[in-house]
Design brief:
There is one protein chain. The protein contains 21 helices and 15 strands. With 545 residues, it is of the alpha/beta class. It has two domains: 299 residues, HUPs (Rossmann fold, 3-Layer(aba) Sandwich); 163 residues, Isoleucyl-tRNA Synthetase, Domain 1 (Orthogonal Bundle), CATH 1.10.730.10. The strands form four sheets. A six-stranded parallel beta sheet has the order 3-2-1-12-13-7, with helices on both faces. The chain has a four-stranded antiparallel beta sheet with strand order 5-4-6-8. Strands 9-11-10 form a three-stranded antiparallel beta sheet. A hairpin with a 4-residue loop joins β4 and β5. α2 packs across α3 and α6 packs antiparallel against α7. The radius of gyration is 26 Å and the shape is elongated. The N and C termini lie far apart (60 Å). It binds ligand ME8. Ligand ME8 binds next to β1, α1, α8 and β12.
């Protein structure tokens, strides 16, 4: 159990279908979750970050058959590809879900058995539409609105008539609506809440099992002919992987689920309703002595990466950046550049983002090469030139007239911390990055207005130059701490150059930082060696056609 004065933070990504290899969409959500998880570790929170794969889909067994493999062998291959991609990108998840794992299967069986016993799951028959690409049952009115085609990939819906077990979603309408009323932040961004609330008002019971899955899936307890519907199996992952000793407090502290908008209904309506139903079952009203089974704290539903022509990027449309293309970006610009671009220019809000190579280069050059990288080189070069590479003293008065937006002191650090924290907490990552970047641009303005390179020509002014450069280095140190969740590897290089390698050590291997202490002004000790080193982010030259 965590110490009582430690905050707990639990963050998840969707678990991804293993019918194919990973692509940029999967990397995107996992990167966003990684940035947010790193912020919480930096802050000292007891953090748990879960990602993984969703295996029991019909499209997985269909794809396996096409390749002459068993579903498990195909799932194993692709699960390994997901892991490899995430590991290569240094996405530091704490565990990786496999829905075919014994633990997950046993727990899902336990939950469904409890729901069957409570009467919230009953036997019935489903006749209606199914979107095979999304593995989703589609209500008649929604099917009709989309001309009986998939809303996501445009393929025709399939007519289904099968025996199923149903979950009494309709019985939870009022409780769900009350939860939305009481927790307006439950679904983010705000603009997505209404569509869900309106749909909940008319929610019907939903099938939670399938027939004819060829044995690929978790059997319904007591009815071996049926397997648990892949979506129900999948949603439970968020609970099964923390339903073990030492992890249950993460669930009780409230999960933050990052997902894309196409799967919001499952996460914002079906998932909390299943939990409300489970809560009423024996053993869940006081769950392992931790009290009533909690509901997630937040479901954050982002928009899509689209191609430059505006189409959703997806596996089925075959227009996605695949692992090889992702490797190329990393080889050319570095891991941190990709993370930074995805997290700050991605579709986290309500509008889709086009993945444009030009915008990628523009962002890289503007924010990373010309702002953070350039400022770090400038300051360390001057410290090298005028102070032999040691952080100068900072007791002399600065006589230059400085505009209020170019002053470097404690107030800059405090303001940056407030802006960064507020936006990290709300998962508004572009604004969170601005806090660190604004600190860096203040350094640039400070240099322009105080002109230390001119003052240094007069030896008697060296103490003043020392104060100027000390303040610049200190502001850069603080900016780097705030930027660490986005560009951890380059920031760690920078820390080693300015005598702060211990920050990197504290944060290594899912370790914790001390954000509040590290952004206090004045911690850089005069006399600390300041290394120049290679440019952190070399400017990318665009070849002229
Ligand atoms: O839906 N832009 O798995 P999935 C941004 N197994 N993000 C995208 C994207 C795009 N164009 N395309 C995909 C499933 N994603 C289920 C989830 S969870 C209990 C079960 C990301 O392989 C985004 O996070 O289709 C989206 O929600 C997820 O990949 C869908 O992955």
């Amino acid at each position: 159990m965590p110490e009582t004065d430690t905050n707990t933070f639990y963050v998840t990504t969707p678990i991804y279908y293993v019918n194919d290899k990973p692509h940029l969409g999967h990397v995107y959500t996992t990167t966003v979750a990684d940035v947010v998880a790193r912020y919480h570790r930096l802050k000292g929170d007891d953090t748990f970050f879960l990602t993984g794969v969703d295996e029991h889909a019909a499209k997985v067994s269909d794809k396996a058959a096409e390749h002459g493999l068993t579903p498990q062998a195909w799932a194993d291959q692709n699960a390994a590809a997901f892991k490899e991609t995430f590991d290569k990108l240094d996405l530091q998840y704490d565990d990786f879900v496999r829905t075919s794992s014994d633990h997950h299967k046993a727990k899902v069986t336990e939950y469904v058995a409890a729901l069957l016993k409570s009467g919230d799951v009953y036997e019935g028959e489903y006749t209606g539409w199914y979107d095979a690409g999304q593995e989703e049952y589609v209500p008649e009115n929604k099917a009709k609105d989309n001309d009986y085609k998939s809303e996501v990939n445009g393929k025709p819906l399939v007519k289904k008539a099968e025996k199923n077990y149903f979950f009494k979603l309709s019985a939870y309408r009022d409780e769900l609506l009350a939860h939305f009323e009481k927790h307006p932040e439950f679904v983010q961004p705000d603009a997505r809440r209404n569509e869900i609330v309106n749909r909940i008002k008319e929610a019907q019971d939903v099938p939670i099992s399938r027939t004819g899955s060829g044995g690929w899936g978790i059997p319904v307890p007591g009815d071996e002919e049926q397997t648990i519907y892949v979506w129900i199996d999948a949603l439970f992952n968020y609970l099964t992987y923390v339903d073990m000793d030492g992890r249950r407090h993460y669930w009780q502290s409230g999960a933050t689920h990052f997902i894309a908008k196409d799967i919001l209904w499952f996460h914002a309506a079906i998932w909390p309703a299943l939990l409300l139903a489970l809560r009423k079952c024996e053993g869940f009203s006081d769950w392992h002595g931790l009290g009533e089974l909690a509901l997630p704290k937040q479901v954050y539903s982002h928009s899509y990466w689209v191609s430059e022509s505006g189409e959703k990027m997806s596996k089925s449309l075959g227009n996605f950046l695949d692992p090889a293309a992702i490797d190329n970006y990393v080889a050319e610009f570095g891991l941190d550049a990709l993370r930074y671009f995805l997290a700050t220019r991605g579709p986290l809000g309500t509008t889709d983002s086009a993945f444009s190579p030009d915008l990628f280069i523009e962002t890289y050059n503007a924010d990373l090469a010309n702002t953070f990288g350039n400022s770090a080189s400038r300051v360390s070069n001057m410290i090298g030139k005028y102070f032999g590479g040691f952080a100068p003293d900072h007791t002399a008065t600065i006589f230059a007239e400085i505009d209020s937006d170019a002053i470097l002191d404690e107030s800059v650090a405090q303001a940056a911390l407030v802006v960064a924290s507020r936006n990290f907490e709300k998962c508004v990552l572009d604004f969170a990055s601005h806090a660190g970047m604004l600190c860096v641009s203040t350094v640039d303005r400070h240099i322009e207005q105080t002109a230390p390179f001119k003052l240094a020509k007069d030896e008697s002014k060296l103490p003043e130059v020392g104060t100027i450069l000390y303040n610049c280095a200190e502001a850069l140190r603080i900016a780097s701490v705030l930027l660490w969740p986005f560009i951890p590897h380059k920031v760690e290089d920078f820390w080693r150059r300015i005598g702060c390698g211990h920050y990197a050590e504290a944060l290594a291997d899912h370790g914790h930082g001390d954000l509040d202490a590290w952004v206090q002004w004045g911690q850089l000790k005069p006399g600390t060696p300041i290394e120049k080193g290679d440019p952190l982010f070399p400017r990318y030259q665009v070849e002229k056609k």
